[in-house]
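Incident log, support desk, overnight shift.

02:14 A customer reports that sequence design results differ from what the structure should imply. Their input is reproduced verbatim below. On-call engineer (initials T.W.) acknowledged and began investigating.
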């Protein structure tokens, strides 16, 4: 057995957190792999709200979702995830998924920004149901990504003191800092 990559592990763990009929958010639609995964998990009666700031990403994600026959379950927004709070009611969402960084094959300068990611995570925290899960794959292998990853981890660790359950999964001893998964379940109150 090969240890899973953080993106694979996110899918393995989130599968158990999503029920048919749930509302979930893909904060970084990219090429739509996560959107298709989420649309499969929520079933026919569920919904996925997906965001990306790049038109190329929305096009790519939409065509992947259409090819999977799941487009009736997904609302795409060509917009920043900082603003997601306008698209769902407080405490109505089961899972919010972030896969940070840039779109493979496109302009690497169009990467997620720490300040915007943190704004969106604040909004995600208010949208999540008690017990809902926030999943963030971070890419500390480049300077901007390292700064963003550190701030995201710090933000989530601060939630642990108010009862969130926070975990981190990654590969140690790599040549350059490897991607890692942060997973957090919102406090039940
Ligand atoms: C690593 S890719 C996501 C991969 C994707 N989840 C998939 O399964 O193919 C990161 C994406 O985040 C997007 N992004 C960057 N800033 C954003 C923002 N403020 N709001 C929403 N998406 C953003 C980028 O355009 C890029 O497509």
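02:41 Re-run completed on a clean worker. Output:
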């Amino acid at each position: 057995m090969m240890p899973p990559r953080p993106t694979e592990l996110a899918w393995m763990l989130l599968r158990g957190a999503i029920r048919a009929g749930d509302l979930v958010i893909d904060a970084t639609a990219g090429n739509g792999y996560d959107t298709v995964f989420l649309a499969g998990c929520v079933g026919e009666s569920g919904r996925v709200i997906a965001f990306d700031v790049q038109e190329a990403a929305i096009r790519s994600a939409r065509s992947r979702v259409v090819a999977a026959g799941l487009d009736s379950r997904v609302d795409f927004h060509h917009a920043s995830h900082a603003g997601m709070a306008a698209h769902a009611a407080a405490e109505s969402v089961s899972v919010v998924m972030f896969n940070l960084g840039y779109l493979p094959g496109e302009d690497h300068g169009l990467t997620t920004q720490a300040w915007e990611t943190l704004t969106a995570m604040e909004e995600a925290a208010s949208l999540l149901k008690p017990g809902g899960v926030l999943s963030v794959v971070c890419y500390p292998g480049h300077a901007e990504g390292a700064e963003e990853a550190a701030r995201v981890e710090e933000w989530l660790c601060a939630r642990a003191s108010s009862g969130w359950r926070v975990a981190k999964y990654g590969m140690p001893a790599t040549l350059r800092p490897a991607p890692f998964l942060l997973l957090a379940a919102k406090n039940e109150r």
